[in-house]
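Hi all, posting the design record for the shared folder.

TITLE: backbone redesign
STEP: 1 of 1
STRUCTURE INPUT:
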């Protein structure tokens, strides 16, 4: 058995941070807690999971209806810049390290902010808004130019854990969506020495590769909660060549997997016919679940006769199809749990 402990992954480079999960996603528990102003369009729209919608010439009592966050025009000093700026505070659903920020100003053309910035803080536990406002905020993205009706992307170099971000518009205007791409850094105290889902994004796992992701982002397979629709999970295109599709998952840490759940809920005519799981521990590869028949629209649970630790797995599906959720329950090794505690306690 390979006893070498793998090194933690390096922070994402500016070339690949876009593939990391959105830590502010509503499905992970993200929330827009406060904004100094949302006179024209609600702050909660910032983290909606859906593509931005726009219907021209649809006016309500506050003007054109926008799918985003929009503030009033600042008039504080009469100079046009308002003498200040607007802000919104977002609680990350999965606290962690941020590698990149996306500020999407889709359909905001004459009312977008010409500059934006993003700050972060670490406020562990369940702080109230007053505590968050008084927290020690640090910059993730300095005041930077932004374009209207555009996907504005900003790489982040800060590698410290954060729980909240503050999106700033300079001076005012509208933003459709905010995405905070990064790596979860969970508090291992919450594991309480219990078995846990080693494949859960919220516990620190991540998708490291997929053979095909035509219909949906593979990260959906390791998101919290029950799948809500056919689009909530991982689904491939129809395979027209010999072979099969696969999904690679980097586990939350090196651990022993004892139970696998393969959920094909909502996949009625596009579930895989069979699935298998192979585990990796350094250079060692071993079978975790042999090729097994699956049923459509069904949660499957398999107890595994396994006592070998792994750092990652490959889910093979035959020949193609979708997987709504993948759960791998087990325990971290003592060394992996200690490494996770050290990472969480870093300043």
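Okay, here is what came back for every position:
SEQUENCE:
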């Amino acid at each position: 058995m390979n006893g070498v402990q793998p090194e933690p992954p390096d922070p994402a480079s500016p070339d690949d941070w876009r593939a990391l999960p959105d830590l502010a996603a509503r499905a992970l528990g993200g929330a827009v807690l406060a904004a100094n102003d949302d006179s024209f369009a609600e702050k909660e729209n910032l983290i909606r999971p859906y593509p931005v919608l726009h219907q021209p010439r649809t006016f309500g009592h506050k003007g054109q209806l926008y799918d985003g966050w929009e503030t009033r025009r600042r008039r504080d000093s009469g100079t046009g810049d308002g003498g200040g700026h607007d802000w919104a505070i977002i609680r990350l659903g999965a606290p962690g390290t941020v590698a990149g920020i996306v500020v999407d100003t889709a359909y905001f053309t004459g009312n977008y902010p010409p500059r934006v910035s993003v700050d972060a803080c670490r406020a562990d536990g369940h702080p109230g808004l007053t505590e968050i406002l008084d927290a020690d905020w640090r910059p993730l993205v300095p005041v930077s130019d932004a374009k209207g009706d555009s996907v504005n992307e900003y790489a982040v170099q800060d590698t410290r854990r954060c729980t909240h971000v503050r999106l700033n518009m300079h001076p005012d205007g509208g933003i459709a969506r905010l995405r905070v791409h990064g790596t979860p850094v969970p508090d291992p105290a919450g594991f309480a020495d219990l078995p846990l889902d080693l494949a859960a994004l919220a516990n620190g796992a991540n998708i490291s590769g997929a053979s095909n992701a035509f219909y949906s982002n593979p990260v959906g397979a390791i998101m919290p909660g029950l799948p809500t629709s056919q689009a909530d999970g991982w689904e491939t295109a129809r395979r027209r060549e010999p072979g099969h599709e696969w999904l690679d998952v980097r586990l939350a840490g090196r651990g022993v997997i004892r139970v696998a759940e393969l959920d094909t809920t909502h996949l009625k005519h596009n579930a895989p016919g069979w699935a298998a799981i192979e585990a990796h521990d350094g250079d060692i590869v071993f079978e975790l679940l042999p090729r097994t028949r699956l049923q459509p629209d069904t949660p499957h649970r398999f107890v595994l006769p396994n006592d070998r630790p792994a750092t990652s797995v490959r889910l093979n599906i035959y020949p193609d199809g979708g997987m709504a959720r993948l759960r791998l329950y087990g325990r971290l090794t003592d060394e992996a749990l200690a490494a996770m505690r050290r990472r969480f306690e870093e300043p």
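COMMENT: Residues 1-14 have pLDDT under 50 and may be disordered.
Let me know if anyone wants the other runs.
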